[in-house]
Amino acid sequence: MPVRLARRGHVLRSVTGGGTCLGYIWNNNSATYGWNSGIFPPANQWSMVALTVTPSNGAITLINSSGLQTSSNPVTNPIQAFSGVSLIGDDGAYAAGARTFNGIIDEVSVYNTNLSRAS
Q1: Residue ranges per domain, the chain?
Q2: Are 35 and 44 in contact (CB under 8 A)?
Q3: I want to staple 13 with a disulfide (CB 3.0 to 4.6 A). Which of 25, 54, 56, 90 is the partner?
Q4: Mean pLDDT of 4-11
Q5: What is d(CA 45, CA 64) in angstroms, rounded to the nearest whole number?
């Protein structure tokens, strides 16, 4: 059940993972795509997933009726301009449909700042 957000080829693919473990890829850095968050969203249950990328770490948060789980990857992430074509639910680096999210994505938001829990 990987969720994909891709822009400009390999620059950003977020909330990916082998099987159902959530992960992310930033700037095609192996310290991001090889990272294991240890967060597994349950099948057939509404869940909110947030990816936060800062210059000093990446973090994934999963919220659903079971509670809140967060995992942080302490890796340096270069700042990237958010420009060009963006895809949500697909990965443009692969043939159309080869890495497509099979589910429902609703109420997507992109922020240019790290939000607090209260936000």
Answers
A1: 5-88
A2: no
A3: 25
A4: 43
A5: 8
Sign of CA dihedral 40, 11, 110, 75: positive
pLDDT at 7: 45
Q: Please identify which residue in the block is written with the tokens 């993972």.
A: 17
- Per-residue pLDDT, averaged over 101-118, amounts to 77
